[in-house]
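Dear U.,

Please find below the material for section 3 of the report. The protein was modelled together with adenosine-5'-triphosphate; I have listed the sequence and SMILES used, followed by the predicted complex structure.
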Amino acid sequence: MITHSPAETRALGATLARQLLPGDVLVLEGDLGAGKSELTRGIARGLGISGPVASPSFTILNVYDEGRIPLYHFDWYRLSGVDELYDMGLDEYLGGDGIAVVEWPSRCPEAIPDNHLLVTIIPIDETTREILWTPRGAFRKIEEGIL
Ligand SMILES: Nc1ncnc2c1ncn2[C@@H]1O[C@H](COP(=O)(O)OP(=O)(O)OP(=O)(O)O)[C@@H](O)[C@H]1O
Ligand SMILES: [Mg+2]
C-alpha cells in the first residue's frame, strides 16, 4: 500500500481497525518519523477513540479505553529491556483483552508474542510512504482489498 499524506496513512489505519479483534498485536517497524504514530492515530479513530493520541515515548504505554476495543499503544524507543516491561506489569497488555500496537519492537523483541501482524512503513519521499502487512505465526491474513 502507498500513502501520499499523513491523512491518508491515518485513513488506512482507521480502515485496518475495522478488521482488528481483541488480543491482536500489531508490531510497527520503521525509522524515526516514518509514520508509526500517524498510523496508530488512524487505528484509534477507527476504534472510536476521539481524543488526541500522543506519542507514548516517555510513558512506554498509553491506554485508550473509550473505543470499541481497548487500545494499548506502546513505544519502546526508551525501553531499557524486558525487565522494565515485566517490572511494570506491562507485558499483560500484549495479547490481552485489547489491541496492542508496538512502536520500536526491536528494543525488546523477546516480549513480542509469536502471533502478530508486522507492519513495515518505508518512507519513499517527504510525503509518500510504502506500508506493508505481514502476518506472523498464526495471525490471520488481512484483506488488503478492503484497505
Ligand atoms: N504519507 C505519510 N504518512 C505518515 N506520515 C507522513 C506522511 N507524509 C509525511 N508524514 C510526516 O511524517 C511524520 C511521521 O511522524 P510519526 O510521529 O507518525 O512517526 P513515527 O514513525 O511514529 O516516529 P517515531 O519513531 O519518532 O515515533 C509526521 O511529521 C508526518 O506529518
Ligand atoms: Mg511514534
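For the text of the report, you could mention the following: The CA atoms of residues 85 and 91 lie 6 Å apart.

Regards,
Y.
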